[in-house]
Amino acid sequence: MAGYAGNARSIAALVREAEVHRDVYVDPEIFELEMAHLFPNSWVYVGHASQLAKPGDFITANIGRQPVMASRHTDGSIHVFYNRCPHKGVKIASEPCGNAGKFFRCPYHAWSFRTDGSLLAIPLKKGYESTGFGDTQANEGLSRIKNVAIYRDFIFARLSETGVSFEDYFGPSLSTIDNMVDRSPQGKLEVVAAPIRYMHTCNWKMLVENQTDTCHPMVAHESSAGTAVKVWKREQGDSTETPMAVQLYGPFMSPYEFYEQSGIRIWPNGHGHTGVANSIHSNYSDVDGYLEQMVAAYGETRAHEILGDIRHNTVYFPNVMVKGAVQILRNFIPIAVDRTLVESWVYRLVGAPDKLYERALMYNRFINAPTSIVGHDDLEMYERAQEGLKSNGNQWINLRRLYEPDEQRDVTAVINGTSERQMRNQFHAWAKFMAMGMDKHAEVAE
């Protein structure tokens, strides 16, 4: 297949009821269309408000191919703009984060902008008198992104000026963010350290799919987590206390039956999560004093509701995964058709015992880091898939596990925990938001 540009029908043909064509992973043209259509029409995670604690603080990010930045203004408000000087197009900020002081200054010609993006000053401004500069877009300063939503300090943006609203896009899936934030006795999270960043040589969608793939852990991780569990059982002797490290990687060897019973919840627009009835995070040791803090903050009934909702992985389509029980967010940032930058963020529960933050940091290092015990297993599978999909023996990927011919799309449902329906859910959303962008561009062209 080839020649997809602007052709919504050919894009739709890549996604069948329970199969997807290999081109969605390996075709550079498809990748560029994702950058031009899928990401601008989706609500994409930009950052967390705690990264903008003081006026002048800023962070940078990318939405598809578009460089963007967010900053805290002097009045405390947060603004998101395109990271581009309106003069010659130079990026205003190249660092992941920093503090601009009272204003941003372009490093090329020293145009300066307030931290709300408005134009502050231009050197030799007399040279623009009687030129009509006042009527140009450049006079307005940094181009603002109009569709920005800050939900419980999580900053999202949609580049497209029209499309699905934030509320309709996420709907009840925001309950995962609610649960993660509510785990703080003060109802607040904060970022206090840089994320773990590393490159995967595979298509970004492989990582997203893997977050709700429950049929691989006991197979792919047998040589790592499985071996570690065997060593612990051999060496534990008379010890009755399971070390935190073993608590973190041991559940990866849970059997199929465990995952089947745990369940998966799907939501409209490609979102969903594993761990409805049970989770690999369910049996961690209690942290002294934490429950008492939660009961004091929320009351006994509500505290137990919050702490009893232990979801495994929540996928926020298109490219974010949240682990509420250990306060981790992984951002799968597309770089090329076969390259994905992973950012793995850990949030601190404000007001909670430090032991919980230490456990989250340990989980991030043990499971998500380049030096992870189990992470290399997944990476090898992604790389093998990226290579194997070049084979002409079969051009379709099978997602038929527990498929039902009358499956409805864009619904909320709880299903068997080993179903591939959440993957099907993601690809139906992928086709929808890709076509949405193409249809709009086609209208402009006409």
Automatic annotation (TrEMBL):
Source superkingdom: Bacteria
Keywords from the named record: 2Fe-2S, Iron, Iron-sulfur, Metal-binding, Oxidoreductase
Iron in keyword set: yes
UniProt xrefs under Gene3D superfamilies: Naphthalene 1,2-dioxygenase Alpha Subunit, Chain A, domain 1, Rieske [2Fe-2S] iron-sulphur domain
Location of the Rieske domain: 44-123
InterPro entries in UniProt: Rieske_2Fe-2S, Rieske_2Fe-2S_sf, Ring_hydroxy_dOase_asu_C_dom, Rng_hydr_dOase-A
Keyword Amino-acid biosynthesis included in the entry's annotation: no
Family according to the record: Belongs to the bacterial ring-hydroxylating dioxygenase alpha subunit family.
Protein name: Oxidoreductase
Organism: Bradyrhizobium zhanjiangense
